[in-house]
Amino acid sequence: METNDARPTALDSLRMTMSQRISHSLLDPVLTLPMKRWYPWLPLPRQLPPEAIVLTGHGLAIMAAVGFAFSTQYWWGGLLIALGVAGNHIADVFDGTHARATGQCRNGGELLDHFLDPLSFGAWAVGLGVCAGRPYLALALVAAIQAQALLTSIRAKMTGEFRLSRVGPTEFKSLLVLVAAALAIAHGFGAAAV
What we know:
The protein is mainly alpha-helical and 194 residues long. The protein has a single domain (23-193), classed as CDP-alcohol phosphotransferase transmembrane (TM) domain (Four Helix Bundle (Hemerythrin (Met), subunit A)). A two-stranded parallel sheet has the order 1-2. The protein has helices at residues 10-15, 28-36, 50-70, 75-101, 107-132, 135-159, 169-193; strands spanning 20-23, 161-164.
């Protein structure tokens, strides 16, 4: 006896579409949207998997974490932070754009992106903890970042919407870049005065 069970299988669940991204960000219209218009002029090969862009962004985030760790001792720490955070954000903007433009959208790619984004923020927290000599601060920040990422993912799955608030990742990363650049400049002038 055959039954026509309308419930989705595990494989059907994997094929479901990605959550709709809804941004109320203050800076996305000023920074992110204009950057996406650059995509056609970027020399990215069509066969380049978007996951390579995601991994590049995470590598740049690790570079920024090293910068955080040394930012109070050396002028180049601030420079590494600014370049790493800015590069991470640029990669984060173009990974999905590249996936859609080349027809390479995969749930695994989105999962990798959403898995590595909070790890990148966590790496920065560890760098801050090292810089401040307060490992418990880093642990608390990493726990808060991971909890926020988990709750955001659960909400996106439940509602079908991935919402960004007015002050989200773009604003946070922009602030980090500005503060890091100021730190590098201040250290540079301080080193020149000595």
